[in-house]
Amino acid sequence: MSDIAYVNGKFLDINDAKVSVKDRGLLFGDGVYEVAGVIEGVLIDNLAHLKRLERSLHSIELELPLTINKLIEVQKEIIMLNSLKEGTLYLHVTRGESQNREFEFPEAPRASIVMFVQHKKIFHLTQDKLRAKVMTLPDLRWKRRDIKSIALLAQVLAKQTAHQNGCDEVWMYEDNFVTEGGSSNAFIIKDNKLISRKNNETILSGITRQAVLKLVQQESLLFDERPFTIEEAYHSSEAFYTSASVFVMPVISIDGKIIGDGNPGPLTLKLRNLYENFAKSFINQKNNN
Ligand code: PDD
């Protein structure tokens, strides 16, 4: 049985789910998106994702075509219709159809919303999957990376190059400082201190990153919110990246240079474990309701 997608009010077989060739998302990348993790059929930290969606929409002067409560209803429905146990829920909102491919906003834009799920392991990962290799490449993106824009060509090309070089993720850099991963936030550990770039327009404010930083505070771990250079990353004792689809992913090499002893570091594994417990709390909440 094929998956079910949601397109502008309709639940459709994924093979029949279509948008217009004049959709501004397709023509201009004029839209924003979210990806949230799902375990045991439950969305992880969904309210934080929806808050970021609202912020992204506001930044591009676009209104959500349905209320947040309705959106949450649709999210739950699509998880149920697809019997999604573990994976991710993707959703995007674009500025809808353009009449004549005019760049300016249409007079009365009708936003278009699309949602579908991806079945994949994000929680129950075996040890051999928790060993990411990273490649660094220049950050070629625009300057508003805090907006979760669907225009992802720079990341597509960078991640493809990393993939062709046998790596799992790219860490992009600007002026020799790492900005973030192709689809994740980057962290290193040096002298037992966690180092990660400050949130501003140069990176996406990762929802997983926010949660990890709260856990770091709760555990009274040392944290330095500042950019780090590629050279510093090469000499770090541990490194990892975070996202809704990988949680906390240990990095074992950067540009072929082995990090620590070439195995996931102890602090990284501790943070992954803490984040997993945090993620499980959403399942417990649901079961208790
Ligand atoms: N990407 N930075 C970038 C550029 C990202 O694309 C992502 C997520 C993150 C991590 O954000 P979060 O913790 O909220 O997932 C950071 C998603 C997973 C994607 O594009 O598939």
Automatic annotation (TrEMBL):
Cofactor names: pyridoxal 5'-phosphate
Function of the molecule: Acts on leucine, isoleucine and valine.
Transferase found in the keyword field: yes
GO molecular function: L-isoleucine-2-oxoglutarate transaminase activity; L-leucine-2-oxoglutarate transaminase activity; L-valine-2-oxoglutarate transaminase activity
GO BP terms, alphabetized: amino acid biosynthetic process; branched-chain amino acid biosynthetic process
The species this protein was found in: PS1 clade bacterium
InterPro entries: Aminotrans_IV, Aminotransferase-like, BCAT-like_C, BCAT-like_N, Class-IV_PLP-Dep_Aminotrnsfr
Transferase among keywords: yes
Catalytic activity: L-valine + 2-oxoglutarate = 3-methyl-2-oxobutanoate + L-glutamate; L-leucine + 2-oxoglutarate = 4-methyl-2-oxopentanoate + L-glutamate; L-isoleucine + 2-oxoglutarate = (S)-3-methyl-2-oxopentanoate + L-glutamate
The protein's name: Probable branched-chain-amino-acid aminotransferase
Domain of life the protein comes from: Bacteria
